[in-house]
UniProtKB/TrEMBL annotation:
Keywords: DNA-binding. The keyword DNA-binding applies. This is DNA-binding transcriptional MerR regulator. Signal peptide: none annotated. Residues 19-86 form the HTH merR-type domain. InterPro entries: DNA-bd_dom_put_sf, MerR-type_HTH_dom, MerR_fam.
Length: 143
């Protein structure tokens, strides 16, 4: 990862905390600039703009990590967007917080179900593998 950008344009008050360029985040997470712009287009990241330059905050960096973690566990873009909305609710009202909690619990349940399905598939593959290996070892092939 390159060193976070420390140079700030003239209006430093509005840019306090925006220390990462698109290149910084792309390098750190192993992404393309295009991928970061995709997440921006979807409203998942909201960098400040100074001319043509995008500047990302520490919060944007954390949100990007959440996006990538969500992708890794099989969440859809819509599910990740919903999750990020929950992340933004730190100052939300009780109804919003309960809704976010329900979304998180639902996602956790879905992931547990997927894990169980994967474990069953793995067990079946291991069983078939043992059968085929036994056939090969016993010389029961057409060779």
């Amino acid at each position: 990862m390159s060193t976070p950008t420390r140079e700030k344009p003239n209006d430093t008050h509005n840019l306090a905390g925006y220390v990462y360029t698109i290149g910084d985040l792309a390098d750190f997470f192993g992404l393309t600039h295009r991928a970061l712009r995709f997440y921006e287009d979807k409203g998942m990241l909201k960098p400040k703009r100074v001319g043509q330059k995008r500047l990302y905050s520490k919060k944007d960096r954390t949100k990007l990590r959440l996006i990538l973690n969500g992708k890794q566990i099989g969440m859809t873009i819509r599910e990740i967007q919903d999750f990020l909305e929950s992340y933004e609710l730190r100052d939300g009202n009780e109804r919003q917080m309960r809704e976010a909690l329900n979304k998180i619990r639902s996602q956790r349940l879905l992931l547990k179900q997927r894990r169980e399905s994967i474990e069953m598939s793995l067990a079946e593959l291991e069983r078939v593998e043992q059968i085929i290996a036994g056939m090969v070892d016993a010389g029961l092939t057409d060779d």
